[in-house]
Amino acid sequence: MSMVNLSPASASRVGLFGAMKHRDYRLLWFSGILCYHAMWIEIAGLGWIVLELTNSPWLVGVVGFCRMVPMPLLGMFVGVLTDRMPGKRLVVGGQLINIISSLILLALLWFDALQFWHIAVLSVFLGVGWTLDFPARRAIVMDIVGQSRLTNALIMDSSAFIISIMIGPIYAGLLLGLSATVTIGVVVIFYFVGFGVLQFVRATNGNIENTRENPFLMIKEGFRHVLTNQLLLGVFLITVVANLFLFPFVSMTPVFARDVLGVGTVLFGILGAASGFGSLVGLVVLGALPDPKGPARVFAYGVILAMAIILLFTFSRVFFLSVALLFVAGLGTAGFASMQFPLVLKGAPESVRGRAMGVLMIGIGMGPIGVLITGATAELWGAPVAVAINCVLGLLMLFGLVGKFRIFRQSETRMVSDIK
């Protein structure tokens, strides 16, 4: 086994916008931020539409489950595809699915025929679209910018994602004030423009395998690399905990806004944007600094901070205090989000990088289970109790994982880069 320092002390400082020097990365980033906006306007808008349609926090959670369930089911197969075919082709395919699904949703709203089951089914297809996009987009980022600017490029991509989390709910709140049809119409426009920009990106995976090996054997090899690498295994387990116990609170934002804080659509949008704004501030700071020597520690402690603050958020009944707490939680999320993909992409051997991302997708895909459980608990005892229970359980597990995996406590991250 060869040991490699993930973030050497001699790493050069690439600057906040270093990755933007690459033409194709600029186009990919711009396409991404448009599609991310479409996604987050859609998520926030559909959450409110379902709540108004059914008056059920449980069914709000069910829609979140439907949207995210393709990740754990298909993530590993998409990882194999990422190792075997051009990444841009997968991203294009994923965004086509998103466009078609959103157009169907728009048509149902236009003809006043939308029912809950329509939203649930279309949410599954939207989840499939983003499951195809997610690992492939990050694989072609590495092909465009290379190792030296990978962390900066992924922080910039995370910034685009976070800007969308921040602005998307505000747009959704304003647009819902007009109508649900207008809201989804704007989503379709964002998807179309983002898809158009994507066509000008020249990129593919540099690590495509020309092999006829059984896909199931390739999946087995991917799991073996993750399970025998302490860094990758630790990142996977913390990702599972975060998606089971932290991020499901997002699906309850409409419930907190309307039923706990007693606000309407505009203030709901501001509440939904607060954590995104905090994450953006955190990402800007991290992107302007040299790569940290201990990215694994930033990753783990960031999610612990976010979960602790969300626990405090559940006790707030004052709107502006709730906004402030979500902003601070977003700062913690920035540490988690900015280091998650660089740790996996740099920690996995090049030949299995797509499959390592596929395993991570399974961890991210635990979100639907968390959303479903949170929705059911909220139906029984209310959203504040449901989210508080999640945070307590999640913090206990995170402290256990940080105690078990020494790499998350070290000031400098070292890892196994290849297994012979």
The percent range for strand residues is under 5%
* Order of the strands making up the biggest sheet: 1-2
The secondary-structure class comes to mainly alpha
Instruction: Say how many strands there are.
Output: 2
Q: What is the rounded distance between the termini?
A: 6 Å
The main sheet comes to: 2 strands, antiparallel
Unreliable segments (pLDDT under 50, ≥5 consecutive)?
1-13, 415-420
Number of helices: 16
Structure description:
The chain has 420 residues and is an all-alpha fold. Helix content is 76%, strand content 2%. It has 16 helices and two strands. It has helices at 23-54, 57-68, 70-84, 87-110, 116-145, 150-176, 180-198, 215-227, 230-246, 253-260, 265-288, 295-313, 319-347, 353-364, 367-381, 383-404; strands at 2-5, 414-418. Strands 1-2 form a two-stranded antiparallel ribbon. Helix 5 (116-145) packs antiparallel against helix 14 (353-364) and helix 12 packs antiparallel against helix 13 (319-347). The chain is globular, with a radius of gyration of 20 Å. The protein starts with a strand and ends with a strand.
For this entry, give a set of tags.
16 helices, single chain, mainly alpha, disordered N terminus, about 425 residues, disordered C terminus
Structure at a glance:
The protein is 76% helix and 2% strand. It is mainly alpha-helical and 420 residues long.
